[in-house]
Amino acid sequence: MAKKYSEVGSKRFSLKKLFVYLFLITGSLLSLFPFYYMFVMATRTNREINQVPPPFIPGSNVVENFQKVLSNIDFFGSMLNSFIVASAITLGTLFLCSLAGYTFAKLDFKGKNVLFVMILVTMMVPPQLGLIPQYYIITSLGWLNDLRAIIVPGLINAFGIFWMRQYIKDGVPFEIIEAARMDGCSHFRTYWNVVVPMILPAFATLGIIVFMHVWNDFLWPLVVLRDPSVHTLQVALRALNDARQVDYGMIMSGTFWATVPLIIIFLLFNRLFIQSLSEGAVKS
Fold it and tell me: Above 90 in pLDDT, residue 125?
């Protein structure tokens, strides 16, 4: 009798596990389909894309479409500009936001909670409202058509401070901070030698989010970068959309190859990204 119940329970567990795997596989395929179809369009001509039904198998025009992209814009130069901007902002955000997060999480000073609430309130303000004041400041500094106009305003953000503060508060025991202080470590040395090695998963998560956001940013670079030599990739891709004749294959080719660096960055740091999210789930 016990063996019979065991077989029934094992069968139910297997069916449940099978359903979970099928659900995850289906969700993964649905998530990857837009990227796949973007690649399909990047390998087809306009006539093939406009067919009914549309093609779902890659074609043979991948090289020709990308050559059209290179003939219309400085693709690799713009990609280099985007990489410089995204890397600089990501590194600056990780350092400054983690330092501020450590301060709010582990140090006591007058007005700490009030200041933290004020920082959180800025997350409710639409970034478009600051467009004109930021443009005025950048113009006064003489930074138009300069990558500093994008890098400097993006070096720190409220979400990064909030994320690091929450992770450090729960992920770094206060006893370790006290032990470091008793050994004679300064606040910065405690942060650099003790806290930073313990929050690498949080670095990976915030780094991926910031890098992707900056890489895909369009509005602010479009406002302050008018010289094509300093265009970021998203601004440069705008030139491919000719109102007289839209070449969807060329546009999708440029868009697809502009997305590849984001996929590479995520694959390099996805283990720490998943570790950060799983640790947060366990703690909560």
Answer: no
